[in-house]
Amino acid sequence: xxxxxxxxxxxxxHYRNAPIAETELMQLVPSVFAPSAHESRSARYAYxxxxxxxxxxxxxxxxxxxACQAKCRLPGKTEYTKxxxxxxxxxxxxxxxxxxxxxxxNEVVLVNSHDGTSAYEMSAGVYRFVCANGMLVPHTSAVxxxxxxxxxxxxxxxxxxxxxxxxxxxxxxxxxxFQGLQLTDGEQRVFGEAAIAMRFGTEEQPPVNVTQVLExxxxxxxxxxxxxxxxxxxxxxxxxxxxxxxxxxxxVTRAVNGIDGNVALNRGLWVLAxxxxxxxxx
Length: 282
Description:
2 domains
């Protein structure tokens, strides 16, 4: 089964419930396999071939389940644009047929480009089966490996993946604490209001209200825990599709634009959940 949905206006995601073969990745995300850095890069730019990183990780048992590539209107640059891969390791996976509603699996998230638009970055992520949503964990909660495109760097990347893998124990512990913490109606509203400000900035009149972002899209997301609150808000803001409350601009909200925006919002929401947990603990 293919779970391919639009990630934003300038990119398309491809999620699978089985590993994506390299031959298919070449069609879906050709920038992963760029044979060199873009011609705009100087001699000091260290080319980190994502394809070599991917193959090295696959030899270690990691398998890609998600692929995304930004689009570009500039001729000849599409094959070098920013891209994202999400990989899973068999030691951190639910076996086929065992996944139930609401269950999650940990992922290693790899972001890179060959045109200078981003550094190489590897971090922890969480995939939730019920809504096919991917969350990203900030460096404050798990290991994030960033490598600049300079010097000898290829040896660092596979080792970095294992550092990320080792941090999944902390991620699991945090997720369990989110699930066990029940929020009051007022606390849920505060979480939703902060998330709206994070998504839409300092707009005097944001296009959606807190009731909308807290609304569950499915029965399984009902509940008062910090985890279910986080899930509802994350899906509503990242996926968009909420009817706007502004009279001048009737319509629906868009999905978050671009890889950078999605990464920033997902990490910000995780930090918000952590801070809420810390405040309650205090």
